Amino acid sequence: MSANLLKQSEEIPVRQSVSERYVLKDLRDVMSKEMPLQDRLDQITNLVAQHLNVDVCSCYILRPGDMLELFATKGLDPKSVHETFLRVGEGLIGEIALQKKPLSFEKAWEHASFVYKPETKEKAFKSLMGVPIIHRETLLGVLAVQKTVEYQFPTEMVELLETIAMVMAEMLASSTIKTLEKKFVTAHKHSRIEGVRLIEGLSVGKAVIHKRMDSVGIILARDKRREIKKLETALKSVEGEINTMLTNPNLTDEQSAIFETYLMFTQDKGWISKITKAIEGGLTAEAAVQKVEDEITARMKMMTDPYIKERIHDFKDLANRLICHLNGCSTHKKAGQIPKNSIIVAKSMGPAELLDYDVSRVKGLVLEEGSQTMHVIIVARSLNIPVISGIENACQIVNPSDMLIVDATRGELYINPSDDILDDFETRLKQHKRLQAKYNQQKTLPAETKDGVQISLNINAGLSADLLNTKDLLFDGVGLYRTELPFMASEQFPDVQRQTLIYRRALIEAKGRPVVFRTLDIGSDKVLPYFENKGEQNPAMGWRSIRITLDRRAILRAQLRAFIRATAGRELRLMFPMIADLQEFLDAKKTLDIELEREKEKGGVLPTKILVGTMLEVPSLLFQLPELLKYVDFISIGTNDLAQFLFATDRGNPIIWNRYDCLSPVFLKTLKYIHDRCSEVGVPCSVCGEMASRSLEVMALVGLGFTRLSMNPAALGSVKAVVRSMDQKQVHSFIMEQLSTPIRSIRPLLRSYALDHDIFI
Ligand code: PEP
Ligand code: MG
Predict the structure, then answer these.
(1) Do residues 640 and 660 touch, judged by C-beta distance below 8 A?
(2) What order do you get walking across the sheet with 127-135 strand by strand?
(3) N or C: which terminus of the chain carries fewer CB neighbours within 10 A?
């Protein structure tokens, strides 16, 4: 692959204009000379204004208290330098800082967010474009240009300013300017911080702060061909390094699968061509890798869907390795020796970074960012390492060698715990070990309640990697395959052929187990960067999911065609998301019929059996349920959205998301109603929302009568333990007694019941 890289890149037309070349050349000159930071900033703003033919170029730097200080300008009143301050979020400059992305305003002066700072005398300037100055995800400032006329800044100009901002970011990050020093938060002597439990477990040990690897040195390249050659060599070395890791006989199947995915990344044409283009734009290979990494990170971070965010950590790890090789490390910098019981504290990390440590010494992992399906989590799970995430500023709060307790059963981190807490911890550790042993013993036993009710345990998946990593888990099928995830990971809509391959791969990896494909559920927080974004005020209730695919029928048709082709000669199970009334379902199903007919006419092989169902996530469907059930082959309850809409509570809003409990009589009665209507007419009904992954909720669901659950794969062990330790009829009677009581949630009662009856919650 990499042997062709130079050839490929030579075919890419050189996009650099004369002004670009000059500005980069001059920038290089400024950077090569010794001079105070202020002088350098002054010179940069001057040369940008001159070469970009703009009337103003200003550099704002982030100061303590989230204030942006005007540090250098060509064009604004020089007296306003160090005198003008804008809060992050204030004015157009503040907006660029807040959004951390380039923004361009043709009529800046008329914009609602425009804030006039009289001392700058900027009244005369009508248009503005600015880019954030970001170093390793940290905002350092804003670089902006202005013109006296209304002006639409061309994309090439935005990109050029981004390149210049990147040079400035490196310069500012390595400068001694006081404002840019890391803000250290001193930990209290004993502190307890709540986080998110990712892999349950308990551990105690010494903190090791994980450091990201090498930083990019030189940003601007002199010789494009040389940089491309360097990239080729580095890619080969990284591939070699991963191949060596793959030969490690101690790797589990899960870990091997992850490294295989890494290898795929190193051969990803889209990624490599982006890096190559950045080199074409004047960057060194390492700066180009960093730029692309930053871009991908920023794009992914815009999406609130956890799945897609998680993939970014793998890219980061890989990009870091590549930078390390480009900087001349012959092998990846090995993490130094760590003490025997170490707890690694990191902002985020890729799986290989974790494996760089002597994992036999790693007893826990604390992440600032991370969630269930990150690859590092999958590796940690296979190594039995408890993980908690969501600990803001963990790398600053925790000091190296602090004593830490990771309580990933409750989602708590203790820093330098007191003796009492340590004693309590010891007791809980013993209990926890008993619980783990129990899960393992039950692995091959059936998911059956004490009174003989069989429960079908399925998993939720979305990328084939998810399935690859379930090799030694026992489950009955994939109850929810979220097809939007491959769409989100693409640069453009995957065509029918590409989609067919993706779905076929999922079927192969499911090894004959049924897979329920869900049609595209985009919109709301799952944004496709290449698809129209209407900027709605309330996207969760807006143009999303089936509403989009019914309105843009070609998207739905292409996807249905791919499902049909992927399942040719086998069974096809599919469902539609966000259906709010029967007609929508019938309309969508009619489209499937058209596609089936079309495929038949073309002589294609059809699926042997087709089951079409719907997600039940919109409350309006509850009132059409008897009619709906005449047409569907199955129902899958999306409790995440159903609860959000039933209680009018945004599921992604941390202020209110847990205001109402899904174990409230209201919600349980709703679920029971659905269950009962379905069983009256023999339509299978499963639950695929997060509820089906949580022990106490599972006890309630099984108690209500649900026998099909689809969950996060990590929950299979604990869910089976709940199922096997409960008596369905008894729990049913208990729940029924509570449903008519005027309480907000039966959670405490259910918990006491579970404890009294030895149910494994
Ligand atoms: C749900 O809403 O419960 C569901 C499973 O769908 P998603 O989480 O993908 O919206
Ligand atoms: Mg949903």
Answers:
(1) no
(2) 85-87, 67-74, 56-63, 138-147, 127-135, 103-105
(3) N
